[in-house]
Amino acid sequence: MRKIEIYRDTLLIFLRGLLMGTADVIPGVSGGTMALITGIYQRLVHAISQINANFLLAAFKGDFTKSKEELLKWDFNLFIPLLAGIGLAVLTMSKVMTVMLTVYTAPTFAFFFGLILASAGFVYKHVDELNFKNIAFLVIGLVFAIIFVGLNPIQANHTLPIIFLSGMVAICAMILPGISGAFLLLLLNQYEYMLAALNQLKFLDIITFCLGALIGILSFSRLLNYLLEHHKSVTMAFLVGLMIGTLRLPYDRIVTSMDSVIPVIIAAVIGFVLVIVLEKQFEKYHLHWEA
């Protein structure tokens, strides 16, 4: 029976990875949001924050027993299937998103609008109470997101240092519910370039971006883990504000590219309902772990 549970959890983590990877290539939608909806968010942030170089230091000193002990602290049961799902989704969805954003712009962004709106409602459930402090942080997040989304893209080039820095910045957003890493790449003028790099398998650019992402996520995850452990309610309130504020992005794209209102409404409703269905389905399958 225990083996069946392990196989089931591994498959469910892989499916979560597929959802996160899909969200991470969508401007306006966060992979962190999908992690939160599917009930894996705090485990993921905690697991990433536990990664350090102690196993390498022990290995250099010749203490391979200590090195092995440090490695065993890593949550490989989470990382392996989750990264496999994210990687598969990113590679496949990069092609799909290129077509959808070009050919079906308004319905695609309407779908994102529904996703984000329903996700904001889900994140709000994690706010303990609607006191002055939480409301203040919600408003701060809202204002910040509205201003942020209204920024014009930076005309940055596509040199390796810029790609590396873009990976560092984008990955921090990708694990935060409410901030889209893909949208940050749009602002940094790297989104379409990195989609093309994935489609054309430009390995040097891909590896450089991934190295930046690795350093970024290992640094930022410790701060985020601290905030979730000690200031969860205000953090979630801030994220709710961010998510509501980022609705400006899909709304602007819908208004400027809409031919008919009916497909837009249908796509938005589908996105909204999808989040509710995902939340209900993943609530049935709690993963077994201890912080």
UniProtKB/TrEMBL annotation:
Keywords: Membrane, Transmembrane, Transmembrane helix. The chain crosses the membrane at residues 12-38, 76-97, 103-123, 135-156, 162-189, 201-221, 233-249, 261-278. It holds the Pfam family VCA0040-like. It comes from the Archaea. InterPro entries: VCA0040-like. This is DUF368 domain-containing protein.
